[in-house]
């Protein structure tokens, strides 16, 4: 089964991301596979294909590395694209890196490497994928995207509380991926 570890998002942020996608669709007509807004999440670690026998170890290691992790806040804001505006492959909304997010992602990466999952070589770049560009954007679409990126840079950031880390399975269908929670790890209240 295809699996990944992610932070689910609150409804108000998903609503905002839906509005952004609607806005982007008005000026980008080229082949973009838009992510279903209800499926948008913050990926911490993509595990890929695992078999049923690996699942208990993954669940146990994940729960163990998160057991003393407190809830924390994240800030979302702005949009952009990878690798750049002239040849975008991924359209995204940004997540501000903070020490809590960096720590939790590092713990997951390190812990799961102990049971055979390779550490990601690329630097962790937190983002929320809005769509994947299947064909190159035309020049007017690139200009439109640049305008929206600049416009959204002035939008008030959204702050939300991270209180769960979820192990998901991903079932690929003709209408897109369907994500189902395998295990939910609740983060603890910070008693400071």
TrEMBL record:
<comment type="similarity">
    <text>Belongs to the 2H phosphoesterase superfamily. ThpR family.</text>
</comment>
<protein>
    <recommendedName>
        <fullName>RNA 2',3'-cyclic phosphodiesterase</fullName>
        <ecNumber>3.1.4.58</ecNumber>
    </recommendedName>
</protein>
<dbReference type="InterPro" id="IPR004175">
    <property type="entry name" value="RNA_CPDase"/>
</dbReference>
<feature type="domain" description="Phosphoesterase HXTX">
    <location>
        <begin position="7"/>
        <end position="92"/>
    </location>
</feature>
<comment type="function">
    <text>Hydrolyzes RNA 2',3'-cyclic phosphodiester to an RNA 2'-phosphomonoester.</text>
</comment>
<feature type="domain" description="Phosphoesterase HXTX">
    <location>
        <begin position="99"/>
        <end position="179"/>
    </location>
</feature>
<feature type="short sequence motif" description="HXTX 1">
    <location>
        <begin position="41"/>
        <end position="44"/>
    </location>
</feature>
<dbReference type="InterPro" id="IPR014051">
    <property type="entry name" value="Phosphoesterase_HXTX"/>
</dbReference>
<dbReference type="GO" id="GO:0004113">
    <property type="term" value="F:2',3'-cyclic-nucleotide 3'-phosphodiesterase activity"/>
</dbReference>
<feature type="short sequence motif" description="HXTX 2">
    <location>
        <begin position="127"/>
        <end position="130"/>
    </location>
</feature>
<dbReference type="GO" id="GO:0008664">
    <property type="term" value="F:RNA 2',3'-cyclic 3'-phosphodiesterase activity"/>
</dbReference>
<dbReference type="InterPro" id="IPR009097">
    <property type="entry name" value="Cyclic_Pdiesterase"/>
</dbReference>
<keyword id="KW-0378">Hydrolase</keyword>
<feature type="active site" description="Proton acceptor">
    <location>
        <position position="127"/>
    </location>
</feature>
<feature type="active site" description="Proton donor">
    <location>
        <position position="41"/>
    </location>
</feature>
<dbReference type="Pfam" id="PF02834">
    <property type="entry name" value="LigT_PEase"/>
</dbReference>
């Amino acid at each position: 089964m295809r699996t990944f570890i992610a932070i689910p998002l609150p409804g108000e942020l998903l609503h905002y991301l839906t509005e952004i996608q609607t806005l982007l669709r008005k000026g980008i007509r080229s082949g973009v596979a838009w992510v279903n807004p209800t499926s948008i999440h913050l990926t911490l670690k993509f595990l890929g294909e695992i078999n049923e026998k690996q699942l208990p170890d993954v669940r146990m290691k994940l729960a163990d590395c998160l057991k003393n992790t407190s809830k924390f806040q994240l800030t979302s804001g702005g949009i952009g694209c990878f690798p750049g505006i002239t040849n975008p492959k991924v359209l995204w909304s940004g997540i501000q890196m903070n020490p809590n997010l960096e720590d939790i992602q590092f713990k997951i990466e390190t812990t799961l490497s102990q049971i055979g999952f390779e550490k990601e070589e690329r630097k962790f770049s937190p983002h929320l994928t809005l769509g994947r560009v299947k064909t190159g954007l035309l020049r007017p679409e690139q200009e439109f995207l640049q305008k929206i990126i600049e416009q959204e840079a002035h939008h008030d950031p959204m702050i939300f509380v991270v209180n769960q880390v979820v192990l998901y399975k991903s079932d690929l269908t003709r209408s897109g991926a369907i994500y189902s929670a395998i295990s939910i790890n609740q983060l603890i209240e910070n008693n400071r």
